[in-house]
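quick one, 369 residues, struct below
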Amino acid sequence: MERRDEDAVGSGPARAVRFVHIMDGHRQQQAEPMRLPRLRCVALSKVDAVGAPAPRRGRRSREQHGQRTSARDAHQPPQQAPARSRCQAVVAEDDTAAGGKQRREFGDTNQGPLVAEQPCVRQEGVAPGHRPFYRRVASARNARDGNETMSEAADRLAEIKANIAGAAKRAQRRADEVCLIAVSKTHDTQAIRPLIAAGQRHFGENRVQEAAAKWPELHAETPDIMLHLIGQLQSNKAEEAVALFDAIHSLDRSSLVQAIAKACKKAGKQPQLFVQVNIGDEEQKGGCAVADLPALLAEAKNAGLTIDGLMAIPPAEIEPAPFFALLDELAERHGLPLRSMGMSADYETAVMLGATHVRVGTALFGSRA
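---
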């Protein structure tokens, strides 16, 4: 049997642990306490305040096994995980499906991938119920190089659709009233195909030229894709836009009304049309002023165009809810059924305030280069 005696040894802040062996049969104490060699003693600067360590339950210590205890094993401050480099993957702990390996010490930089952010958990490990969430976090971070799998794209798509459904339920709406537009601008076909395979059919582009370069091939592979133009449109590109896109969200001026009307007559078809409103009255943004909306709608009607809804982008760094509510009110006032509003950071708020189309890019594809 052993008893730890934590009396101070020597002077100065360092204290050594002495072990006094007690003989159970003879009840005799050794004349000279056994003192560990200095190199193997554990320096405990605040042992008096902390007290003796509690015995481990269900496990035998190294001393009980007759093994030597090194200073590194006995007492060492917890190490922090090294910063993840751009080339390192992030996978969930114990996630064999994501290629997880056995846990290793953080100090070895040549070891396997690090663990995604996790809350403080007990020593028995991550609760099984949390692992799918960490897997989604890891997938969203790792799959930004165009080599993601269908399951990873499906996870992110399902999560956003679940958020939309939750927001619609809180607003006493049906989830199928909201169209999710995956904003694929600046992303190539390799990044888009996994979302198509996961079931996404509505995609948004900012530029006519970029869409013309990548979407004919994708349309040929999946004919039921619906393509939305959500960026500013030049009048001289109206004919090409009408031929390529199923919806145009950025009609905002008289000259564009005339150009689109002419293109629609030539093509014999009209895409779904939204008038973009400069809802925050910002000089740097496109869209017609709120005061000019009635006149622009009247001009479009006279030109033979059917306007289906309104689109707006609220000012950045400001609570978007009042602007969404205003756009909903304007659409209601003019008898327009559709509202294109809400992006990655605020689409749930937009759904609760009447959005029928939300334009989500970063939450689905990640940050753009």
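The chain has three domains: 1-74, 90-118+126-139, 149-365.
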